[in-house]
Amino acid sequence: MNSIGDASPSGRRCRDERGTALVTALVLLFAFTAGGVIWLSRDVNRRVSNRSAAQSIAFQAARSGAQQVEVGSLRDGGDQPLVIDEPSAQEHARRVADRLFDEYRLDGSVLAVTVDGVTVTVEVRISDSAGDVVGVGSAGAEAGS
Questions:
Q1: What residue ranges do the domains of the chain occupy?
Q2: Cβ-count burial of 138 within 10 angstroms (0-12 exposed, 13-18 middle, 19+ buried)?
Q3: If the chain, 145 residues long, is cut into consecutive pieces of 10 residues, what is the mean pLDDT of each piece?
Q4: Could you give the CA distance from residue 121 to residue 110 in angstroms, rounded to a whole number?
Q5: How far apart are CA 64 and CA 88, in angstroms?
Q6: Of the candidates 34, 33, 41, 87, which has an alpha carbon nearest to the alpha carbon of residue 65?
Q7: Which helix (H) or strand (E) covers residue 143, if one does?
């Protein structure tokens, strides 16, 4: 009953499934590769976004600190150089940074607030599972006309 031209059911099944394993392997390879690329791009995007937020928070905190000029240095009509109230500048810079961390919903902290003459520099860190990023911002005080 089985002649050379007739294909048995088992022979037909093997011939129809030829290449199925290769196709399955390729589909899985592309799926895992696409998943990895999506995960990596999301992770990199979050890290870049956090770096931008850290820079912004550090600058805004430094600007707030630089606005804490001692009033006496402004009253003499510009005869004296500007003097920044260092404790007040540090307090305002930290307070602004903490408020911005809360508003941006980020886990961050102020690493340092330094006052050098009329320049306030703030360094902040944002902690995230994508990686910690540090931002530094500086602002200077100057008398307006």
A1: 9-140
A2: middle
A3: 53 63 87 83 81 95 91 66 89 96 94 94 92 92 72
A4: 11
A5: 10
A6: 87
A7: none
